[in-house]
Design goal:
This protein is mainly β. It has a domain of 113 residues. Strands 3, 28, 29, 30 and 31 form a five-stranded antiparallel beta sheet that branches. β30 and β31 form a beta hairpin. The chain is globular and about 55 Å long. The termini are far apart.
Length: 422
């Protein structure tokens, strides 16, 4: 009769004795080390955004306090600075600049295109640069000047060729806001925070007249009705002009998106969307953009589901969808948004230093997916070497790289140009 014994303890078919146990442990460790090395060497790197500073403004000839960027088809960046450049009695901190940044041999080089003089025929504090139909740069100054910058007539062989400045028109003692727009004939349109018949803001048209330009105020805003627009204007495909005002008590709204329709008797203003100050936000500010389907996108400074402003979309019928509601802890959206080729929306938040989670502002993205939107925080500024208080809309190139400016911080405290790569 067989004797009764203990069942065999085994691992990998080996007897469980002291010598065998040691060998098993060694083989197990070698296996785990091999597995770790295999996974490490064959795994793809995790995808994530990379933030880098492309230029630190010095406050000298390159400028200080940059304000937004635009891209040309070759991938060059253009922007303006509120200060820096030429310093004189009219501009103790500098009158501001327009600059260009080119990527050469993997590095970015900044070249000032024009330094403002501060004179009545020139202006100070340039802002809101855009490209016109002729490829030239157009913008406004805080003192009410609408300007044009043209590249050199002959080919430039250096990186520091100046562009020629022309003042299209002096709007007078008003404060222009936001981007200008062009109609199909090349006339220029814009909005002012003040001025107009009631000094509550206006929309104007500039038309070529002889060797100069002629201004026509096509609409004057009225106090306590709808007043003080803080964004520019934009045309739709039908030639209707759109813009925003943050105040619209006369319409019972916490701000409106308006449209201006041309007619034989002039231009007629209609309320395209009335913000209620709560669910869809209040105080719309910044510039508007269209997507290919004709939907409008913009931001509100207050209100929304969390009370700290919104990013919204308006359908061609004026129906609003809130894409994201801010709670104010990481800043509020103070400028317009931008869109990439896939329809994703990008923007910035601004903070005066009191926001709990982001006292120096942020860059964010809203990703479109199957009719819904997902918020992603791309960067939170520290106010140090990475800059602080982003100003203006960001620019996005064909590869999905995001470019923008921050008005403070950086290596010299005068602001930065930054890039966020996907």
């Amino acid at each position: 009769m067989p004797t009764k014994g203990h069942p065999r303890n085994s691992l990998f078919g080996m007897s469980w004795n002291p010598a065998g146990a040691t060998l098993v442990i060694m083989l197990t460790l070698l296996f785990l080390i091999f597995l770790f090395l295999f996974l490490t060497l064959t795994a793809q790197p995790a995808q994530g955004q990379t933030f880098s500073v492309l230029h630190n403004f010095t406050g000298g000839g390159d400028g200080a306090r940059p304000d937004g960027l635009i891209l040309d088809r070759a991938g060059n960046l253009y922007g303006t600075t509120f200060q820096g450049g030429l310093i004189n009695n009219l501009c103790p901190a500098g009158c501001g600049t327009v600059f260009k940044m080119s990527n050469r041999a993997g590095g970015w080089i900044l070249a000032p295109l024009y330094q403002f003089q501060g004179t009545p025929s020139d202006g100070t504090v340039p802002q809101n640069p855009i490209f016109g139909p002729n490829g030239r740069i157009y913008g406004t100054t805080a003192g009410g000047s609408v300007f044009e910058l043209a590249p050199p007539v002959t080919a430039c062989l250096t990186s520091s060729c100046s562009w020629s400045h022309t003042q299209l028109y002096d709007l007078g003692d008003v404060v222009p806001f936001g981007d200008v727009a062009f109609d199909r004939t090349g006339d220029v349109y814009g909005a002012t925070f003040s001025g107009g018949e009631y000094n509550a803001g206006s929309v104007y048209e500039l038309t070529p007249a002889g060797s100069g330009w002629m201004e026509t105020v096509i609409y004057s805003f009225q106090w306590y009705v709808a007043d003080q627009p803080e964004g520019g204007v934009i045309f739709d495909a039908a030639g209707i002009l759109y813009g925003t005002t943050p105040f619209a008590e006369g319409y019972g709204c916490a701000g409106i998106v308006y449209n201006l329709t041309p007619s034989e008797g002039g231009w007629t203003l209609s309320v395209f969307h009335c913000f209620n100050g709560s669910e869809d936000g209040g105080m719309p500010v910044g510039d508007l953009i269209f997507d290919p389907a004709g939907n409008l996108y913009g931001t509100t400074y207050t209100g929304g589901p969390e009370g700290g402003g919104t990013v919204y979309m308006l359908t061609p019928s004026g129906e609003a969808t809130v894409l994201y509601g801010f709670d104010g802890s990481d800043g509020v959206p103070l400028y317009g948004v931008s869109m990439d080729a896939a329809g994703n929306v990008y923007g910035t938040t601004y903070c005066d230093g009191t926001c709990q989670d982001a006292p120096y502002g942020t860059v964010f993205m809203l990703r479109r997916s199957n009719g819904s939107w997902t918020y992603s925080l791309l960067h939170t500024f520290t106010g140090g070497s990475d800059g602080g208080q982003p100003e203006g809309a960001v620019a996005i190139d064909a590869n999905g790289n995001v470019y923008g400016t921050a008005a403070q911080g950086g290596g010299y405290g005068a602001g930065v140009v930054f890039e966020i790569t996907p």
